[in-house]
Amino acid sequence: MKLQVKRWISQFVFLVSANLGAFGFKTGFCYPFFYCNACPAATSACPIRAIEISVKDSNWRFFLYPFLILGFIGVLFGRGVCGWACPIGLLQRATGRVARGLKKRFPVLKRIGELRVEHYFRYIKYLDVIGLAMIIPFFVNFMFTDICPVGVMVGTIPISILNPGEYTPNGFYYIAMVVFVLFLILIFVVERGWCRYFCPVGALLAPFNKISMYYVSVDKSKCTHCNLCSYACPMGIDIPNMDRSLECILCGKCVNACPKNLIEIKRG
Amino acid sequence: MKKIQVVQITLLIVSAGFFTSLFLYTDTYNEIKAVIVDTTCFSCIKMNPVTHFTFTFNTLNNQPHPTYVQDNLTKIGPVFLAFRADVCAACDKMDPILKKVFNVEFGKKELFHQIIEYQGSNISFFHINIDHASGEFLNSFSIYDRDHRSGVPMFVMITLGNNSGKIQPYYMTAYGELTGTHNDKERIEYFDKMINKGIEFYQENIEEYIKQEESN
Q1: What is the ipTM of this complex?
Q2: Across the 216 residues of chain B, what is the mean pLDDT of every consecutive 10-residue run?
Q3: Among A243, A248, A196, which Cα is nearest to A77's?
Q4: Which of residues 158-177 of A touch B (CB under 8 A)?
Q5: What is the pTM of this model?
């Protein structure tokens, strides 16, 4: 079976399993990917929410719990979770094609990727998790989940539809809606824009790419630098020089793109 | 064996070991389920539930009223329950208002109970933190969650009502920051209206209720 078909199946299976709460199946685990516990069908807890509660309430167990889950899976697959399991990753896989089309039509979008500072934008996701989910909640009553666009998408919108007129917006509603619209624009304009720049769970998993059991390896000695792999990469990585890049989501698009079959997903 | 493999295996064993011990020897799994998964996170959905100012006899899934509520109803007066959780911005906002209305002092994590004289009538006031409460007190959170919102803060006024000839516990549930109120003054007035209504119903029905209980 083709790698990309396997990935569709895997993502679909995880999307369904993340929503088994619709049939009353609720667990006390944290998702190892980005999904919201406020979704009426959610099976598990958002790891970022657990971290926020731990910081707010000085509860070390709630802090350790998501880290242990993410750590175990991170050592095995690194950010492979983003490419193979995350429902938000699946959404962005779907919008990625549009983003690619728009990039061809509007050269200005292509220039965003060519900016020299683009590399630094990728550090925003670490600020998200350390600043918004750990430091700020400790001092004031504001946290990442107050403005989280995924909470709006899978929590606010379904709940408003299921219970019309039963809820009223709170203080963060309109700010969160603006963030949500920006999120939608982002994922349609930049391929996997949320994963690249803002995803806090991706930020927690990223360091594990350096030691993960599964990783993408390139046979550099035979590489002709045709750059077809980098062109295919949804995360915009310079594949021949990546060497266990923090951004790699193990999607395998470069493996398929290489005309000489020099790229492979390795174990070890 | 390569150096990286040693690191990988060590990390896998350490994380799996710690996770298993957290899972087996602490209550973290159940706490995560209760605090995050089973409770609706209003900050995640950025909305507050609407409060309807109507009293009802029907508890959620027709569960029986807890014994401590029934005892207080027969012996003392109407019962007021205030539910909160550890991490809840709206609860932090509402607690000082409650303290002002009932003229009491209580801790955030405390299961607090006091009989309060409110404008000449006795009221039994309970402050329940659902992250620390257990047994009947925790169960009452789902019993009185009339609109099935499963979120905090939640305030319940339990009094007595005439259900076509039979006197039964009669209650209303208010959620979140109380819909339609915009500042602390309006919220205090809302609670006052809720409590006065409760006292009024109670005084109308208590004699009949005691007679009914005695004949049973």
Answers
A1: 0.89
A2: 90 96 93 89 87 90 91 93 89 91 91 92 94 90 89 93 91 88 90 94 92 85
A3: A248
A4: 159-160, 165-170, 172-173, 176
A5: 0.89
